[in-house]
User: Fold this.
Amino acid sequence: MDLREPVIELDCRLCRRRGGHERTRLVKAFGAGVSFAELTRRMTVGCERMNTVEGDQCATYFPCLMERISSCDED
Ligand SMILES: [Zn+2]
Assistant:
């Protein structure tokens, strides 16, 4: 986990699940070495679109990962 933002946002366009998660709490819960893929899996437990007959249809993503190319790089 290489983001330094105190709050990491998670957004699912399909479920409209959107929220900020405190980084320190995520690290505490999942460990500092957790990958974003792993985080996505853990955080989307309960998303009914994750387990469909066609497989994973959930659109969960971390907005900051998308934006970091342009804006999260200024550190
Ligand atoms: Zn979802």
In short: The longest helix spans residues 23-30.
